[in-house]
């Protein structure tokens, strides 16, 4: 049993903000909400992200970019975006002349992230870019360089870092609630629908790993606070399934971390998973779902007794993510998930693919 006073102490520190510093050149006036332009009006943008601005303290939706005039009309009307703030991909670069736009949020197919991030930086805008950051580490490096050259911030849409149960889990692992972490298991997957860009390698950069397995990968890094030193991966794809002509279905891999922690990870396009478990020498902490849009559930096992984990203060992960970048710009901080974080994941994704392809473990420098 975790006594009530211990439950309170487990939550201590969670409400603390995300570190402050002196304001540099890009800092914007603090008395206004920063304006976001959404690029790509697909499912994630319209169903998950755009409705969240109503709850944001430091961010507002001011512009839309789409190749489909009907979508610009429909969402422009719904969100009160004037014609002057609606752009096609062809006239995207004109965002440079719109001072209401502070941040461009790139929510396009993966292969388009690099181009639209670099064009945004060249137009003088800060950038939020969806995961995976790009389809190669070389593209990630170019995106980071473009934002740096323009003196603009670049953040990757790793929303779980703003989700209260995931933040609590990071704290509990760090506090060694179940002893020092020895093993992590992380599983993410779903049944992929046919005929979509995610199954077309030139558009997606890869299969389940790029799309959903990246949650397993990223979680092992934020739960350990370490970078893997060894990876060993196995791919299992039925190439006669028309969905998997160019991308992988299953890829399972093992990471070894410097402290000796081993993570076993699953990424799948043919089975549903959304879970991770941290195992220490005194028990385990389990999250299922772990990285879903909502409904995170934590269970803790200590000394052979399992119970529900403590309930962290409620917070909306999407709002937290959107406002974090605005607040970083306003106060001159670097985001907790900058471009470099996306680059690290892409380098690891490349190592996982290489290990599976070559049938051997790969040491990571
Ligand atoms: P989607 O297919 O629903 O939307 C993609 C949008 O891009 C559409 O509006 C489409 O019209 C537009 N587009 C422009 N050019 C295109 C082209 N050549 N081919 C296909 N579409 C084109 O996809 P989505 O689910 O919204 O995913 C978009 C991005 O968001 C991806 O990078 C994905 O990984 C990411 N995403 C993140 C989360 C998360 O929880 N962080 C969830 C879903 C998606």
From TrEMBL:
It comes from Sphingomonas morindae. Residues 35-158 form the Gfo/Idh/MocA-like oxidoreductase N-terminal domain. This is Gfo/Idh/MocA family oxidoreductase. Residues 1-27 form the signal peptide. Residues 193-363 form the Gfo/Idh/MocA-like oxidoreductase C-terminal domain. InterPro entries: Gfo/Idh/MocA-like_OxRdtase_C, Gfo/Idh/MocA-like_OxRdtase_N, Gfo/Idh/MocA_oxidrdct_glycsds, Glc-Fru_OxRdtase_bac, NAD(P)-bd_dom_sf, TAT_signal. It comes from the Bacteria. The keyword DNA-binding does not apply. Pfam families: GFO_IDH_MocA (PF01408), GFO_IDH_MocA_C (PF02894). The lineage of its organism: Bacteria, Pseudomonadati, Pseudomonadota, Alphaproteobacteria, Sphingomonadales. The keyword Glycoprotein does not apply. Keywords: Oxidoreductase, Signal.
